[in-house]
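As agreed, record minuted below.
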Amino acid sequence: MLDSSPSGSSERYLSIGSLNPYVHRWQIKARVVDKSPLQTTKNNSRFFHVDITDSAGDIIRAKFWSDAAEKWHGALEKGKVYCFSRGRVNVANKRFSTLNNNYELSFSADADINPADDDGSIHVQRSLCSMPLRNIFNSTRECPFPTDVLAVVIEAQPVSSVTARSSGEELKRRVLRVRDKSQMEMEISLWGEQVDCITETAALPQVYGLTGLNIRDWRGARSASSTKSTQIIKAGSGLLQPEEETAAAEMLQWYTTTGSSLSFLSMSRAGSTGEGAANDRKPVQEQSIKDIKDRNEVSPDWRYMLLASFIDSTGSLSCRCFADMGQALLGSPASEVRRWDSEKKQTFFDWHSILKSHFRVMVRAELDNYNGEQRMRYTALRVEALDAHSLAMLLHQQLKVAVPSATDFAESKKAKLQLDNHGDISEPNAKRSLVEAH
């Protein structure tokens, strides 16, 4: 829908909820509620994004790349109101956004963005798209995935230093332990300057809203990590929506009265936590891999990975044979061949009839690039051993195509002779007709 400008001018604005890729000319008036730092990709491309909301409470993400990022990063300020136009509406990538909007905006350096009057019609509160901790634990989405969290922070651990493997940079890290009414607990890692938002001296427990967290999975344990665009909002600060402030107050009252005495399942660590589960912890008995293997009678499933050379009358071809193709070639399972001693293997490959057998092989040819050199790589897709009868039938078919049969040869010879005789007889008759006509 189109809304009239609050200032009473003839200028009209489109609401964020009405934006879609099929609307080409539009102008929106919105407040910047979040702004990410100016970042650099691996190919040295600069980018940043802002989250903007309008008077209807709808929110959308606007992205800026390359020259647009250099131009608009310093011009846009968090909390200010602007008029946005001459942008492109794209489908949002939900892997990198927690906003409740199926679209996102993209602006170039030629975009039209101007400051607008702030008449108070656009709220400064940020809406959370939060998930209960149990839903995060049970989610089937591929990790990592983004989400917002509204939970009780019960502990802020001291700051530690971590060295980034990619850049070797020293990073500050603080781990938070959070809980909610689903009786789940999760660890959240804050990085860089965000570690100062919640310190170990803060009055805890306290409800916080955290936006733009990345959920990661490691061997079944899930934890969250902040990103450069993560916002940490304390409940009661007036920066959350009224319904979220109410939910935060109820959650804090629940935890301080009854929740703190309950048992909580930690998705970031094995086992339960809480006062009710303190006596449930049992010491872990150290066992070697051999003991576990012998107890559970676990045996690996051995598979072939062979390189075979096939030869026919035209040349040779080296081909890779995996798993079932290797078994079809050798005639014995890989687990059985593995149990053979070296002498039996030597005898098998020296004297076994495989080296004198015939096979029909279907291969897949792929062009491979190795050290800047292109070469063909062949992989067996089907291997069929040919017995004497099958080999004879195959040779018969090939000979039938290459050399005509005796019957076909006789019939073709007879037809040629008849054609020649017919030509010899008809020629004198033709001459006689010409003479008589003359």
